[in-house]
Amino acid sequence: MGCGCVSQHQVGIPGGGPRQFLYTATDKEFVRTLDKEELKEKNLLLTYFRLDHEGHFVVTDGFRDLVRRKGVPRRYRWRAWRALTGWSALSKPGWYERIMRKAPDSKTVEAIEKDLDRTFPGVEDFDDRKKRELANMLRAHAGLFPSVGYCQGMNFVAGFLLLVAGRVPDAAKDAFFLLVQMMVKYRANLLFCDGLPLLKLHTFQYRILLQRLFPDVHRHFTENQITPELYLTKWILTLFTQPLCFDAAARVWDLIVCDGLQAVVLIALGVVKLWRSRLLQEDTEGILEMLSMRDGEPLAGGEIVKAALALESQIAPGSQGTLLATGRQCSSGGSMPSFALHAQAVQRE
């Protein structure tokens, strides 16, 4: 993940871990549990502490706005994502265990096993245990959605969920439930099913909006034969978990979890906005090197989201807003795709 993975904090285990207090704690008592890094965002942590109802968040418009604008501190991120994705809808007793018994075909299993060591290589937290949990998640996903199966990119999405879940009780089960919600409720399976329809749609949207919002960058890219497929495909199929470091990826995921997969277009444009002047000075090799994000100063997730949200107001009016609305309908609304109907049928069994 670019600049490396940061281990989960020892205190404040997110998403249903042991409670720190057996009574209603005061703000001062809570602040005393913060470590040195957390004290840097004390005020934001206090906001989430006050919104925390015995390990759960109530999702309101105000809560969504808070997550979009400010992000979620690490100790609260997992339970916030669970609330925002509607994770509890999948917590039917025994469902997870039944899904885990659904085995995909041998070809799919072989493809999954081949990609395990390619997933976050060198990241200390992604150890052999996490790799086995990832294999189980991907096998179960392929069994649950046989028409989709397994596609490269899913390994990074599922693996990232495992890393964010950290040490919560039943982390693998939690991560799988969130993966299913991402695939069904957020329509992420449309990124990976035959023909990659959602990837193609978001690439089309990005291409049009890049030309409208940054005509100089678009012209410079064209002159250097830089097409979106050379960099955007990887960004979208891994939901930015590959080019960005852990904290940056987690912050842009805050926006994705709130807004749906359509946010990936804004996030990609936000990166261009931040790097606009530098990109215009680079040749073909330099542009590709920058967009690969392998070297150089890593981008901060908060800055990417800030840039993306600033662009949102420019995109909203007229036909540009229609472009994004089309993506929102595809990725979060409209008729239920066949893989989602299949998942609902399995859940009712």
TrEMBL record:
Record-given protein name: Tbc1d10b protein
Top-level taxon in the UniProt lineage: Eukaryota
InterPro entries registered for this protein in UniProt: Rab-GAP-TBC_dom, Rab-GAP_TBC_sf, Rab_GAP_TBC_domain
Domain Rab-GAP TBC: 71-260
Sample GO molecular function, one term: GTPase activator activity
Originating gene: Tbc1d10b
